[in-house]
Specification:
The chain is an all-beta fold and about 700 residues long. About 0% of the residues lie in helices and about 45% in strands.
């Protein structure tokens, strides 16, 4: 398996709200001569402004220092004033600007003074970023803030460059945190020439009180990985004490060497060469190869504890190794041992170990893998003259396959292309490539031929499958959907057993459909994939959800009952040439209905609030209408305008929706209430019963 350890920069900017609480004193005059003040706290006794070791046992808290500033913004007009810390011991912030008096009694948000990016990871302690919103500003009130910045703390007394790397993703696949370096978000950052105690701030994309995720932390010295550890429950407003960082162990003397003998192709265009070493414990090292005696043979020492190597031909426009600068590379190789430590490049991606005097191609066993979905066991090929052969093989239209050497993925051959599976023509000669894509052929009986030296391949069709069907015969299967009022567009047999087709079905965009048997719903198949793109196929499941086409058109539908696959291709197109769709296509654009001034409110329980769910209301009985719900004042209660054509007393269902979708429909619903009737007695707030999910009951009350 190729080692593409490409350290990609990621973009992550997280702005999250926090709950604010205030303590008011009604006896305080908001316009006293000393200015307008408030007290900022983090909810503990220590309320000053720098990072401090509170008790000497790695318990670290965030505290204030005089001169710190906070920005107070009037949410009505976005005007703001800057308040300065005048008393670190109490966390008192004061503004003498006369405009600050106008904030008293107003709803404000309070944040760090962010003239610079709030999480510039090179600002150290000064990068502390706090935030709160929805606060009614009262003179001399105590306001609790939330820190959205977390810190890594370490001490280092060496001379090397320190690189820190954080890795973790949410269940949705998003990066959880990032450093910020020169206004670029990244999951790793390097510091050079900085000794002593260091604080490195980073954004954390989750609140650990809501979602507990473990992070992988690694540190490197001068590019050499020294340590990797796991941080449990990473989250907001924390300092993670890494202790004292150490330099890597010195490399042992008299290291083994490897030599690279490039061919003329590799030496063209002034390319240079690098060796990527790695081991089974995720250790790796990238070493530049040099030709000190100008004899055309390049060499380097093998770093300690490395087990395998791949050689790389590098772009001469770049001096440093990076995967995006690699022009060509070999397969992963076990490091050659002297005297067999000379690696000879044979073509653009293959080579062989030998001695200083030359090489011999190792014996190779070739086999074909993938038939019937079996990607573990090869079917051996037989060497006949210049060709390895596999004869009389029955191949089905759903089969994909490739050729492998020595029962391992170190060396495998397929066709060039961008799709996972690529259809090839019978009886046509193809040149296969190392690591190429899976091949597919029309159903039939084949003789397969592969020339290992030239990499030429041919699938010679010599007959039909014994179980091929008579095409165009009636079948029990049909396509049922909104296009035919959930009737039945009959499918017929094809020349392949258990493969059925209905042709020339005309669909409007986002029509809904499923496959069913015997014109009943006792056995039916759907998604999986809810939004299907044309000219592809999807996996379908018994009792799966309705499927919708994303583009209007006239299509042929093929249903493979054996593998439970559904194909949708342009009318008359070859279904065997299309690729599998594994992610949903584009959702339909949501058009919210006209609404009235009448309101309904939803208070979700703790279960419903999980996983950043969104909420919608489904009105029915006078035409089905979906309306999104919002929490406009951040009080945890979601509101919706009753749509036109409805009023109090109407039928409604409140739904918990998938936050990774935008369209309101039943495919995107996670949970729902029972069928409800909106009361007519003024009770307009529905509270979902605690510890319930679907149809768990709830109560109406007055909002």
């Amino acid at each position: 398996m190729k080692k593409f350890w490409n350290l990609m920069l990621v973009a992550l900017v997280v702005m999250l709200g926090a709950t604010a609480c205030t303590e008011t004193d009604e006896n305080v005059d908001a316009k006293q001569e000393a200015g307008i003040s408030f007290y900022a706290t983090f909810g503990d006794e220590d309320t000053r402004a720098y990072i401090d070791d509170a008790d000497g046992d790695k318990t670290w808290t965030t505290i204030w220092e005089e001169g710190d500033t906070l920005k107070v913004t009037n949410t009505e007009d976005n005007s703001y004033c800057k308040f300065v810390c005048t008393d670190a011991a109490t966390g008192k912030f004061t503004c003498e600007d006369s405009a600050a008096a106008t904030f008293v009694g107003k709803t404000v948000r309070i944040s760090s003074d962010d003239d610079k990016h709030p999480c510039d990871s090179r600002l150290g302690k000064k990068a502390l970023y706090v935030w709160t919103t929805g606060v009614t500003f009262v003179q001399d009130a105590t306001i609790q803030l939330t820190s959205q910045t977390s810190f890594l703390r370490y001490t280092y007394e060496g001379e090397g460059a320190i690189t820190l790397k954080l890795e973790q993703k949410t269940p949705q696949g998003d990066d959880v945190y990032a450093f910020m370096d020169n206004n670029q978000s990244t999951n790793e950052i390097t510091f050079s020439g900085i000794k002593g105690e260091n604080f490195v701030p980073f954004w954390c994309g989750v609140d650990s009180s809501q979602v507990e995720l473990d992070a992988t932390l690694s540190y490197f010295v001068d590019g050499v990985k020294v340590k990797q550890t796991t941080i449990n429950g990473i989250g907001w407003g924390k300092v993670y004490n890494l202790g004292t960082l150490t330099d890597p162990e010195p490399a042992p003397e008299n290291l083994a060497k490897v030599y690279l003998v490039p061919n003329d192709d590799w030496k063209s265009a002034d390319a240079w060469f690098s060796a990527h070493f790695f081991n089974s414990t995720d250790g790796f090292a990238d070493v530049k190869l040099t030709d000190e005696d100008a004899n055309g043979i390049y060499e380097c020492s093998v770093p300690a504890d490395m087990e395998k190597v791949l050689f790389c031909r590098m772009n001469p426009g770049f001096a440093e190794f990076a995967w995006e600068n690699v022009w060509n590379q070999t397969a992963d190789e076990v490091i050659g041992v002297e005297p067999d430590n000379y690696y000879y490049i044979l073509d653009w991606s293959n080579g062989a170990w030998g001695t200083k005097d030359g090489y011999e191609l190792p014996a190779v066993n070739l086999g074909v893998i993938g038939f019937g979905g079996n990607w573990d066991t090869d079917i051996d090929m037989t060497l006949e003259g210049d060709y390895y052969t596999l004869k009389g093989k029955e191949i089905y239209a759903t089969d994909s396959f490739k050729i492998r050497a020595n029962d391992a993925w170190t060396e495998s051959y397929g066709v060039e292309g961008s799709n996972e599976d690529i259809a090839i023509n019978a009886d046509e000669v193809y040149t296969l490539v190392q690591g190429g894509k899976n091949m597919m052929v029309p159903a039939g009986v084949y003789n397969l031929y592969f020339n290992y030296s030239t990499k030429e391949f041919k699938a010679e069709r010599v007959g039909n499958l014994e179980n091929q069907e008579t095409p165009d015969q009636p079948s029990p299967w049909s396509l049922s959907g909104t296009f035919n009022n959930w009737g039945d567009a009959a499918m017929v047999t094809t020349d392949i057993k258990n493969l059925f087709v209905v042709k020339s079905v005309t669909l409007e965009a986002y029509a809904s459909f499923k496959v069913r048997k015997d014109k009943t719903w006792a056995e039916n198949y759907g998604g999986g994939i809810s939004y299907m793109n044309p000219n592809g196929y999807i996996q379908v499941y018994s009792g799966g959800s309705d499927i919708s086409n994303t583009v209007a058109g006239t299509y042929d539908f093929y249903f493979d009952y054996t593998s439970k696959l559904l194909y949708m291709v342009d009318a008359g197109a070859d279904y065997t040439t299309v690729a599998k769709q594994t992610v949903n296509g584009e959702e339909p654009k949501q058009e919210e209905p006209e609404v009235t001034a009448n309101m309904l409110y939803l208070k979700p329980n703790a279960n419903w609030k999980k996983d950043n769910a969104r909420f919608a209301a489904y009105f029915f009985g006078n035409g089905d209408k979906w309306v999104s719900m919002v929490d406009s004042d951040s009080d945890g209660i979601y509101e919706v305008n009753i749509p036109e054509g409805y009023d109090y007393g109407c039928n409604v269902i409140f739904c918990r929706m998938n936050p990774n979708t935008t369209a309101n429909n039943w495919n995107n619903k996670w949970n729902q209430t029972a069928d409800l009737k909106a009361p007519t007695d003024g009770k307009n707030l529905y509270t979902v019963k605690e510890n319930t999910w679907d149809k768990g009951g709830g109560t109406w009350s007055v909002k």
